[in-house]
Amino acid sequence: MTAILVCTHGHAAKELIRSAEMICGVQKNTSFVSFEEGMTVESLQHKIVKEVQTLNLEKGILFLTDLKGGTPFNVLVVLLENYKQSELVAGVNIPLLLEAFIQRDSQKIDKLADQSAIAAVQGIYRYTMPTQQIEDDF
């Protein structure tokens, strides 16, 4: 099973995982790291490395983060070279997590990253109210 680590600003990572687990059940080999206000880049990096050590990396690790170019993303970019099989996807949302959770046993990590990114985009939808047709009495 591919390991998944979610790292976001604030407590979003923990809550995204909890929300996804409400839909597809509690997940093994999954963890999160929160980048909190006042935390240094070095302490975030240390926290990520420590958390990754708790995961089984036999099938690789999928790193998910909230924002391309943000501190969690930038730290993970540096750390990627330390992990043989790893992928990084920014823009984590619940559809992305669900796809990753459901497909991680059956897909290689590169394909898992691709499919998860597609699910994230496809999960965005703008609903518009249907317009009512006004019948003319004339």
TrEMBL record:
Record's GO cellular component terms: cytoplasm; membrane
PROSITE patterns in alphabetical order: PTS_EIIA_TYPE_4
GO biological process: phosphoenolpyruvate-dependent sugar phosphotransferase system
Residue stretches making up the PTS EIIA type-4 domain: 1-124
Localization in the cell: Cytoplasm
Record's keyword terms, sorted: Cytoplasm, Kinase, Phosphotransferase system, Sugar transport, Transferase, Transport
An example molecular function term from Gene Ontology annotations: kinase activity
InterPro entries: Bacterial_PTS_sugar_comp, PTS_EIIA_man-typ, PTS_EIIA_man-typ_sf, PTS_IIA_man
Protein name: PTS system mannose-specific transporter subunits IIA
Source organism of this protein record: Listeria fleischmannii 1991
